[in-house]
Design goal:
The chain is mainly alpha-helical. Helix content is 67%, strand content 0%.
């Protein structure tokens, strides 16, 4: 009964928390280095239409000059013939993704093909934006976090019962305790971090995909 009440309480909190995050976020940096990702689709549309604003919104303001130069070159070369178009598009996409990832503090490791396996949370985050509903995302994230908390808690609690039996037992508990507390600390810090509304995430807080 206690576990049921605990799960229900956590579910209620996480549902509200993720709903808040989704309402407050303007951009989602999801699978930015895959051909099937949203930012590469924007880049391909920009190359076809000449509307560079479609890609400028994904980069830092300080990087605009470099990207604009690459965009202009690509637009000129791609007019020559099909082979030149393919090379020019690839050159621009790689330049674009490299600049975008650098702005997030992440390394550029090449562009991955469409269909590349992604973090399930990232996939659901994109689906939520496409469908206009965050229900599936909230369910996935809530279940994942509840499972993680339970797993760490149950292991730590079971080892705590044997702390006084030996030094080794005490050390095993101490190791589990540290992992348990760090896991909770990370979850709480991420939950308590305010969403950035102006520009991209500051360098110290940037993440990799």
């Amino acid at each position: 009964m206690e576990n049921t009440n605990f799960t229900a309480s956590v579910f209620t909190f996480l549902t509200a928390f993720f709903a808040y995050l989704l309402m407050g976020t303007g951009l989602v940096f999801a699978h930015c280095d895959t051909m099937g990702g949203p930012i590469i689709k924007n880049a391909q549309e920009a190359l076809e239409t000449g509307k560079i604003d479609l890609v400028l919104m994904w980069i830092q303001k300080d990087d605009e000059a470099e990207l604009k130069a690459a965009f202009q070159k690509a637009r000129e070369v791609r007019k020559l013939n099909p082979a030149a178009k393919e090379l020019a598009d690839r050159y621009f996409l790689e330049t674009f993704v490299r600049i975008h990832r650098a702005g997030e503090g992440a390394p550029f490791t090449g562009i991955k093909p469409a269909g590349t396996e992604l973090n399930p949370g990232v996939e659901e985050a994109d689906k939520a934006l496409d469908t206009g509903s965050a229900d599936a995302l909230l369910k996935l994230m809530t279940e994942t976090i509840v499972h993680g908390i339970h797993e760490h808690y149950e292991r730590t609690m079971s080892l705590k019962k044997h702390v006084g039996e030996s030094v080794d037992a005490g050390r095993e508990y101490a190791e589990a305790y540290v992992k348990y507390v760090h896991y909770i600390e990370k979850l709480y810090d991420d939950a308590a971090t305010k969403t950035e509304h102006h520009g991209h995430t500051p360098p110290a807080e940037k993440h990799a995909h």
